[in-house]
Amino acid sequence: MIKRADKEDANVLAVLAIQLWPDNDPNGLTEEFLELLEKKNAACFLKYISNKPIAFAQCQLRYDYVEGTDSSPVGYLEGIFVTEEYRKQGYAAELLAECEKWAKEQGCMEFASDCELDNIDSLRFHLAMGFEETNRIICFKKEL
Questions:
Q1: CA nearest to 76, candidates 101, 63, 57, 59
Q2: Is position 76 within any domain?
Q3: Is 118 inside a domain boundary?
Q4: Among residues 1, 68, 60, which one has the least CA distance to residue 33?
Q5: Rounded to whole angstroms, how far apart are CA atoms 47 and 93?
Q6: pLDDT at 59
Q7: What residues in the chain have per-residue pLDDT under 70?
Q8: Closest to 3 measured CA to CA, from 76, 53, 63
Q9: What is the pLDDT of residue 29?
Q10: What is the pTM assigned to this prediction?
Q11: Which of 25, 53, 9, 60 shows the shortest CA–CA distance to 39?
Q12: Within a domain: residue 133?
């Protein structure tokens, strides 16, 4: 079963998300999800197997320029995660489909995402899901 997350699911999302973004604070993630779930331009979806949350996806609308797109807003996959024992069973594809459906309902004509240059698993997932690569960049910063 897939359900759209609400405020009561913020901690469940954080427990899954900390596995995707381990450099974050679990309590901070819970707070971020609480704020995010209040916004109309964002949605999170949870996948359950036998009442156990095993995966999530987070999507938002982006109004600024998104690499390779021609419209605005653009639906954007901010994060997607399936616990290891449930991978390669199509659950990420199901979650992505929910995000895309939500973006269409918001009037989006395009859907985008990104991944780190060295995240080969994510690159393969995106390509398998019909995304096309639009650009590769290396970002820089400098202390002033």
A1: 59
A2: yes
A3: yes
A4: 60
A5: 11
A6: 98
A7: none
A8: 53
A9: 95
A10: 0.91
A11: 60
A12: no
